[in-house]
Specification:
Helices cover 26% and strands 22% of the residues. The chain contains 5 helices and 9 strands, in the order αββββαβαααββββ. The strands form 2 sheets. It has a 7-stranded mixed β-sheet. Strands 7-8 form a two-stranded antiparallel sheet. Strand 7 and strand 8 form a beta hairpin. Helix 3 packs antiparallel against helix 4. The longest helix is centred in the N-terminal third of the chain and has 11 residues. The radius of gyration is 17 Å and the shape is globular. The N terminus is likely disordered.
């Protein structure tokens, strides 16, 4: 029964051309209806267990939206540009790469605000080095808006812009794009995620 449901979901998430229209890369435990889920670990909702840096199962110019939250920072400083190039390859012209990564500038702001966050270093460990719960949960790269924008433009994206998690079709999914300090204070807290998207 579970296998049948997974197959039906996979068919739902495929476009007319037989390929997924929207990808959720590095989804981990989070499921977004209407997306094709790719992750290194075999969670029940994952459509393809694979390294998200290798999308060779897709031809060029086939996908309209790629969503990757808290994924790019898991690749090293000499790796991440190749990953961006691979994601760019599979996007159609006008397609969107929607990224969320830990915002180094925001982490610094938390660290320096000793009045609000006397335990500042402990609060930004996750953003800087990952949760380290398994072999995939280590961060190897840091970004701020300037560096990520430059990286997207260098990859070939025509434009780069900020996106608001509240205005997306996945706003109901509480992932790192909605990370704040203090934790879950989405009204008065400091937003810890850098949410940028590139348009091909």
């Amino acid at each position: 029964m579970a296998k049948q449901l997974a197959q039906e979901r996979q068919l739902e998430n495929q476009a007319v051309n037989g390929y997924p229209e929207k990808l959720h890369l590095g989804c981990a435990r989070r499921f977004i209806p209407g997306f094709y889920h790719v992750d290194a670990q075999a969670y029940p909702h994952v459509d393809r267990v694979a390294d998200v840096s290798d999308l060779s199962f897709l031809p060029d110019n086939t996908v309209t939206l790629i969503y990757a939250s808290s994924v790019l920072e898991h690749f090293g400083r000499h790796e991440y540009m190749d990953v961006l190039a691979e994601w760019y390859r599979v996007l159609k012209k006008g397609g969107v790469l929607r990224l969320s990564v830990p915002d180094f500038d925001a982490a610094v702001a938390v660290y320096l605000d000793r009045e609000r966050f006397p335990d500042g270093l402990r609060r930004i460990h996750g953003a800087l080095i990952g949760g380290q719960r398994d072999r995939w949960d280590f961060h190897k790269m840091v970004f701020n808006a300037q560096l990520l924008t430059e990286s997207l433009m260098q990859t070939g994206f025509r434009t780069c812009r900020h996106w608001d998690w509240r205005k997306t079709e996945h706003s109901h999914v509480d992932d790192y794009s909605q990370a704040y300090q203090p934790h879950m204070d989405k009204t008065n807290g400091i937003h810890q995620a850098l949410n940028l998207e590139g348009v091909k």
